[in-house]
TrEMBL record, chains A, B, C, D:
<dbReference type="InterPro" id="IPR017226">
    <property type="entry name" value="BHMT-like"/>
</dbReference>
<dbReference type="GO" id="GO:0071267">
    <property type="term" value="P:L-methionine salvage"/>
</dbReference>
<dbReference type="GO" id="GO:0032259">
    <property type="term" value="P:methylation"/>
</dbReference>
<keyword id="KW-0862">Zinc</keyword>
<dbReference type="GO" id="GO:0005829">
    <property type="term" value="C:cytosol"/>
</dbReference>
<dbReference type="GO" id="GO:0061627">
    <property type="term" value="F:S-methylmethionine-homocysteine S-methyltransferase activity"/>
</dbReference>
<dbReference type="InterPro" id="IPR036589">
    <property type="entry name" value="HCY_dom_sf"/>
</dbReference>
<comment type="pathway">
    <text>Amino-acid biosynthesis; L-methionine biosynthesis via de novo pathway; L-methionine from L-homocysteine (BhmT route): step 1/1.</text>
</comment>
<comment type="subunit">
    <text>Homotetramer.</text>
</comment>
<comment type="function">
    <text>Involved in the regulation of homocysteine metabolism.</text>
</comment>
<feature type="domain" description="Hcy-binding">
    <location>
        <begin position="1"/>
        <end position="241"/>
    </location>
</feature>
<dbReference type="Pfam" id="PF02574">
    <property type="entry name" value="S-methyl_trans"/>
</dbReference>
<protein>
    <submittedName>
        <fullName>Betaine--homocysteine S-methyltransferase 2</fullName>
    </submittedName>
</protein>
<feature type="binding site">
    <location>
        <position position="227"/>
    </location>
    <ligand>
        <name>Zn(2+)</name>
    </ligand>
</feature>
<keyword id="KW-0808">Transferase</keyword>
<feature type="binding site">
    <location>
        <position position="144"/>
    </location>
    <ligand>
        <name>Zn(2+)</name>
    </ligand>
</feature>
<keyword id="KW-0479">Metal-binding</keyword>
Length: 299, 299, 299, 299
């Protein structure tokens, strides 16, 4: 399968989605740059862009190689020429933003950081989606705060809400790259492990392939990640959807599909892991027998 | 506390260790660059150095900012002008290498990738250490294959072996950055999660602070990491040993000690996490209730 | 506190409940007698009553000593002179039974083996409760199939249903003595561990004290157990509610409240366990690091 | 296969073992009677024998039906006419007891409650076995305090010790019916769950079948259990060794081998559990996602 496909890069995001393409988002900036030593947890401000531009550029490069079609600016406030994306936990505030942006005559993608229970005022995901589309958003969805499966549940509710209201929009999802079945309405920040002990929850690439397939099957065509999504997670989306898209991302030159790169290992029991069924069915151990598997949120 | 301390960088490694300094090693190259998209798992070759020098340079930079005093070459075969480090699982082979290097009149650091049960021929860690020192190594220790606590157990045996033989050497440890209490004699490659589902085993920064303290208390003065050690893990070593060393690493400008950066968070229950006791005692959940906590090695 | 209180034993069950008394049910017969060697799993028939009457009598005796006020017949079909209790998974069938029994002019207690999702035809717990009371039941509730916390959730829905319909009835709950957060609509029989590997799920006495308190706070006054409830679990209900009832069960002569019996142990660290806070907060390990904490139902 | 085989009951225990028979011990009295309401934890005294003889007799009956050939007296001090068994944690004390009993001209079975690390004074299991046999014991082994697999490890060391000393004796093992991989030298009493939260550690019948097979393969011919061994665990020993012994225990009339009793269940997914491979390979969930899988001993 051919790698990359840069000619596509010239089309606008709505053109792509309208023509049925899958658009792959990017991943985690703040949490990833914190681990690399350029962002301070707690404040999570983005001065790295000016202080250490090479480090930020390098991470962008990694996401691009992994297959990201869209680079969201790392500042959480700057604008791009192709779209506007924001991050809200109140439906009303999101609606205001969409209206302002709409006047600027750009395609608007509005994602909210809500779970299946809806926003802080009890507005359901379905209602949020309807409000955003009525305000002018072309792309609606969720990002951050919840893990992949919870976010897909929210997306299903958004989709059903739009359908029931007779509205149409492109769907977009960018969940955490962490397993978070135990987080409450407030999302991952309320779990006791946030933000310095989330390691055992990091998704494997195989988890992300399953997520990407499920997102695609749900009709979502803008699929990416948020905190915890490392470049290899983005690549996993691009590899899972390579049959639909017709090409692999650049960094697949360093990745054998479903572990196939192990087939030349000298130890036979490691070679035996070079197959899809193996990784699809593996239940990975935590190596932490004194730790539980779930936590209770602090709020 | 002052940051960094670059003037020290001119001394040779033996001079430093002889004068009682703590030397901080670097961390994971292959596994980390695999996740960034530049190395292929299975082959684990290092062509990234020529193909993507910026990516490799960036990772070196991150380890330097995190406090590494020594950059081991990423090629696993090239030489540096200050020391020679190698990676052996047979005592005899390690001895040959030390003898050759010794003739080159350089200080030799010889680490073996063994656990408490010793090498492939049943040579105990104590005997391995004795052989290496007799062959001319100035620094002996272990790297890779086993988790921090298992590696410290091996180091204790090496130290006792040297002591019993009336020999002296500097001690060096560079374990995996993963929790691996269940790996057998062959180390982590034999566990079913290797290499694509090790995520739940990644150590937190707090685990690594405990490891660094225990290594120091055991008399080890060259303390670093191997596969799985990300830049923030190296920083955790440097922060834990800052009282002894008198300075913090550069990237501590982006890290509040023991979570102190959370003390300005808007949510009170997150502010309550801005203290040492909290993170020292937290037992982090895996978020994976269908997974076990330990695995059985394949061999 | 006085033990037992046999004079009370002469009142009818409705008299007791009407006067505000707490009635304590019995526990597990089939599963308990299977472990003792008198019942065959799968068929779960009750021929032990005739084949081994001493064994059955002994278990009844243990539940009586533990505080049970009511002995449900072990046959699942015989009648008692004080009440009728049955076990249904279809609301309609339960209603027929209540109507027939009502004609016999006895107080009817009707429990269904449903969870929060309701019966097999989607009748909600609230609707089930309303139907049963309208058909003539004086006591309604749930038994078997689900763990204590799931059953209390179902009871809350039944209570709300009755309240919304302006109806009144006594509430009764007899859940499994197992931790079953992962069972689906079909209950514990669908979990892969049923019926021969449920051991790790057995509730502690302290779990049951919490359950009893929560049931009481919810307004339930007939509190017992079903499969998995051993005599000491029933005693835990009776001990938790001793302040309200004014007496302890007979077998509390062999049980120090909240572990107080350990206060004479020779080892100080075991004496330190002779207190309520210790047992209330303990998170007991499974001793099975290769096993998960949750399972997926087979159906 | 024939049930029971009472004619054998007349032979003395040494005659049986000398002729190559497998002798099946009994199980848990104190912990089991505590749960039934007749023994107080902490003191663990045996006044139930006089206070509630029916309850004690019933438990004896259950063990007999399950296949026990030997009933150890519940008093921990009374004597039987066929053998003497005691329970020691100091080799020296055990030796004194054996010498005294030997003078009484009875066959002596001496078991110690030690683990692989030996007695309180560092006497290894091998040395303990040698001392006991030299003092006159005909049967040596371990009971209580440690789980099945730890106890088998200790037995292997005892066997090797005897072999190295050129001595011969019958081997006997009666471990806990709990999973205890995490208990230290002091055994299960030092674990935080002792004695009121051991539920999640209870072995399944299938665990016990594996234990019985492994004990048999190790050459042990007196195989039983201690605290936590319920009647159905003893039956599991008798069923596993039925091919060697030529008969099943009485209570196997209520037990289908390897779950075969489920083959008439109405639900097909439960019928699918009526086979050996299913239960042999099942990894049972704890149902407790907030709990760890291992604990740290208090001492």
């Amino acid at each position: 399968m051919a790698l990359a496909g840069s000619p596509r890069a010239k089309k606008g995001i709505l053109e792509r989605l309208d023509s049925g393409e899958v658009v792959i988002g990017d991943g985690s900036f703040l949490i990833t740059l914190e681990k690399r030593g350029y962002v301070k947890a707690g404040l999570w401000t983005s001065e790295a862009v000016v202080e250490h531009p090479n480090a930020v550029r390098q991470l962008h490069m990694e996401f691009l190689r992994a297959g990201s079609n869209v680079m969201q600016t790392f500042t959480f406030s700057a604008s791009e020429d192709k779209m506007e994306s924001q991050y809200f936990e109140h439906a009303e505030e999101a609606v205001w933003a969409v209206e302002v942006l709409k006047e600027a005559r750009k395609p608007v993608a509005a994602t909210m950081c809500i779970g299946p229970e809806g926003d802080m005022h009890g507005v359901t995901p379905g209602e949020c989606a309807v409000k955003l589309v009525k305000a002018g958003a072309s792309i609606v969805g969720v990002n951050c705060r919840f893990g992949p499966w919870t976010s897909l549940k929210t997306m299903r509710l958004m989709k059903e809400g739009l359908w029931a209201a007779g509205l149409k929009a492109h769907l977009m999802v960018q969940p955490l790259g962490f397993h978070m079945p135990d987080c409450g309405k407030g999302g991952f920040v309320d779990l006791p492990e946030y933000p310095f002990a989330l390691e055992p929850r990091v998704a494997t690439r195989w988890d992300i392939q399953k997520y990407a397939r499920e997102a695609y099957n749900l009709g979502i065509r803008y699929i990416g990640g948020c905190c915890g999504f490392e470049p290899y997670h983005i690549r996993a989306i691009a590899e899972e959807l390579a049959p639909e898209r017709g090409f692999l991302p650049l960094s697949s030159d360093k990745h054998g599909s479903w572990g196939s790169g192990l087939n030349t290992h000298t130890k036979p029991w490691i070679r035996a892991r070079a197959r899809r069924e193996y990784w699809e069915n593996l239940l990975p151990a935590s190596g932490r027998p004194f730790c539980p598997s779930l936590s209770k949120p602090d709020a």
